[in-house]
Amino acid sequence: MFDKQIGGGCHGWIPMAKDGLLGAVCFAHWARVALQARQARTEEHFKVKCQRLQEARGRLARRGHRVAELLLEVPREQIRQKVFQCWQDSSRRRTRHARMSAQLARVQALVDRRPMTTAGVWDPKQHGIAALAMGPGRKVRTTRRRTVRVRFRPNLADMKRKSSFSLLDQIKRPMPGDEEVDGDKVKLEKLWKLMDTYEPNDPESIQKSFARHLEYSLACTRFNFTMEDAYRAAGLVLRDRLLESLNDTNDYYRKMDVKRGYYLSAEYLIGRHMQNAIANLDLEQPFKEAFIGLGMELEELFHEEADPALGNGGLGRLAACFLDSMATLSLPCWGYGIRYSYGMFKQEIQNGRQVECPDFWIGDGCPFEIPRPDITYPVRLYGEVTHGEDEKGNWCVNWVGGEIVQAMAYDNPIPGFDTYNTNNLRLWRACPSKEFDLDMFSAAAYADSVESRRKAEDLSAVLYPNDATYEGKELRLRQQYFFVSASLQDLLRDFIKRPNYKWSELPEKVAVQMNDTHPTIAVAEMMRLLVDVMHVHWEEAWDLTTKCLNYTNHTVMPEALEKWPVEMIERMLPRHLQIIGELNLRWIKDLQKKYGDHSPVISALSIFEEGDIKKIRMGNLAIMGANKVNGVAAIHTEIIKKETFPEFYKYCCDIGKPDKIVNMTNGVTPRRWVHCANPALSAIFTKYLGSHEWLTDMTKLKGMLKFKEDSKLHSEWMEMKRECKAKLAAFVKEKCDLDIDQDALIDIQIKRIHEYKRQLMNILYVIHRYQELKKKSPGEREKTQKRVVLIGGKAASAYVNAKIIIKLISNVGKVINKDPDTSKYLKVAFVPNYCVSAAQVMIPASDISEHISTAGTEASGTSNMKFVMNGGLIVGTMDGANIEIREECGEDTMFIFGCLEHQVADIAAKAKSGHYPIDSRLQAVFQAIRNGDFSHGEPEAQAEFCSLVDRLCNIQAAGTWDGDKYLVISDFPSFIDAQARVDATYADKAKWCKLSIQAASSMAKFSTDRTIKEYAEVIWGVKPAVRPLEDR
């Protein structure tokens, strides 16, 4: 029976290819499965193997391009023909086996001697395979045909990345040294032996792990579970592997006593975790095979994951990209933040208006996070400060009373790409110090009995609570201090665990980065912990603080820097107010010695801002307490020096430290934003460059430039864009119920809704384009470039004008999309609830994207980098990172318009004297709005839209909040000209494709790998600590 069943399986495979090489590939796959069947020890196991053999044969028939790993280009139609031959001629004699085996050996010999990474691309023609496949005497066809990849699976060890987790079954885990063991070593050896090996990563082991978690972790039955259950079980399978790596990485860092970096950020917009983690671990193929074998597609599981609502915009997305690069570069760095139960809000659009709904993303649990109830720290709020003596009789300060909140850690492993290092994002959840008051409950005061718990949980409940009220501002400050205090306590505890530690060594072992002003209370908290808790002398504590802390500024507008009322700080953090007051007193005395008692520099540099409400300027505190201060783009850093903090920069120059303020141009991670978001583009890069090395060294993308004129690459590139647009069309249909033309130019602006980002100018241009279309005859319209305009982003719940802009965009879309004269040529939609997973669909599909902030207002921007990495071109101003992208990619890849940063003041000055002309085309747009063309008979909307227009038309107030603050009217004519250049360039598809390739291939500077290397070398002094593995 055994031979009969195995032989029958073979007959179904062999006839599939009359051409020798394809037959060899098919035979190899059959032989591998057949060998597994022959090794079966029981008849039951044998039956399972035979069933899998038949299933595998069926999968080959359906998907000829998935046989295994050898990349061989074969025309799709030829594959189909061979599949049908397989079933029609399944009784072929086995005499062909020997001949096919010989051909297979020739293929294997070529595979064995070629260098190759996991996803490296091998050209068969370079090794004479094309001639082998065609047979002797046959001519090689040179006509262009659509091709597919056929894969063959020999021993794949030589094809994996050097740090592929799929090879960990060949590795044993590190053992602790004697000094690391607490307790009886003999008793622990048995446990160590059981945990001596890593979880295996072959498909069958992954399936077993999945089944175990499905039943034993989630309590699902094998007969009744949902796709959501399957996602959570798969997430736990992945978490097992991440945990092993995280624990061993942390042990290695401790063993090597490395200097560590700690990144403090109020938000991390990390996106869906599963796909990115699987890709970084190099487990894509085994996970795919495992779940296909279980009747599931891995991509279906990806879509079950909710976007973690731990951030809002570019600040949080940047922080997430930084974590990915820190791990990929094997830097011993952790992130710290807050584990928000609710995101800022889930955005819904009802009757064109933004409606904020609770975003309880953690409701069903997150399979990747690791609760750590063993790691909690007390955080005190309110209370009072007393003076007394310590146990040694020394004078000391005590902060007592108030309320205590417990910060409980939740760890989120962050794996690197092509490394065995896995770092950590530690998030803090607020818990009460006293869970429940039984006396109050017994007295029927049920609400009061849990009041302390409710108040504590408020701290980590919502990202960015509305701060339009005093209570909202107070909650924000409590949040910021809560996570800063817990994080500093945690990293100092780790430092003092070192044997024979000395405080003088702290700057050699710790570097802290404060991401914007949210965590800058860290300056005062570090001083409190060192002076009051660790009893370090004031002068030494200040020296340690200023050497360990660093500050990233993310805004060019002074009014956006956080300032807290002194009264609020005094009530909530009384000891910190004393510390800040003492720091400021010493600081002012130093300034007076240098500049005199009455210099205006002193008031500008003081931490305290005088006025009706005395405030503490957190930006000033951060700069004074930081070792390095950095901007996030070249132009932004210069603005910091000249406009935001000019007095500080002058002071730094006067004391011989002009390099205290440095530039660190932002970036994004290509793993998330190309490899995961746009796998078709990733495959193109890998094919033409010969390996995946570009994912960790984007300078290698320069190698694509020599192909930018290649018609074959153009064809593949345009096919990639078509696939991305097809996904976008399905997405827009689902989210907006709008059908879009996939052949149209896709124009996207997705950002936080803010007046300086000028979504208003974008929609005013759309109205102008609509008006121009209406003027044209049907014949003239046919010659017009079709365009789909998509705008997305959230407006802060208290930002009235931003929410009116959303309503205007929605109403304009309703009019244009329903107009039979124009809807074929122009469509516009507001895409609700913009998030990372939405961006991963929208960005790869764009032809053009809008980055149109007023010059001098955008610190950097990172969405511009993501769009260009995916082959999109930019319409933009000379602002933020646009300037550097243009320098890298070439002037012809960007459609620049608008005034320059140094011209803004002159424009505002001329407007004040009455010279601020409004272009006639914009006047026509304003008139249409005033006429109610886009109000749909809604009086409230009409009044709101007219208020926007009227304020813009207050020409003498241009450049101020009473008029056209962000110079929309001034830049509008050149914006129209830029869009006309877009249409003209897009009409020449070959030229557009060339520019798209040129831009995407020139983005090496904007990888966060480059950014983080610079942070590590220039600011932190942290070096890579690559975790080695011990071979068996």
From TrEMBL:
E.C. code: 2.4.1.1
Names of the cofactor(s): pyridoxal 5'-phosphate
GTP-binding as UniProt keyword: no
Reactions catalysed according to its record: [(1->4)-alpha-D-glucosyl](n) + phosphate = [(1->4)-alpha-D-glucosyl](n-1) + alpha-D-glucose 1-phosphate
Domain of life: Eukaryota
Pfam families, A to Z: Phosphorylase
Purpose of the protein: Allosteric enzyme that catalyzes the rate-limiting step in glycogen catabolism, the phosphorolytic cleavage of glycogen to produce glucose-1-phosphate, and plays a central role in maintaining cellular and organismal glucose homeostasis.
Stated family: Belongs to the glycogen phosphorylase family.
Protein name: Alpha-1,4 glucan phosphorylase
Species whose genome carries this gene: Durusdinium trenchii
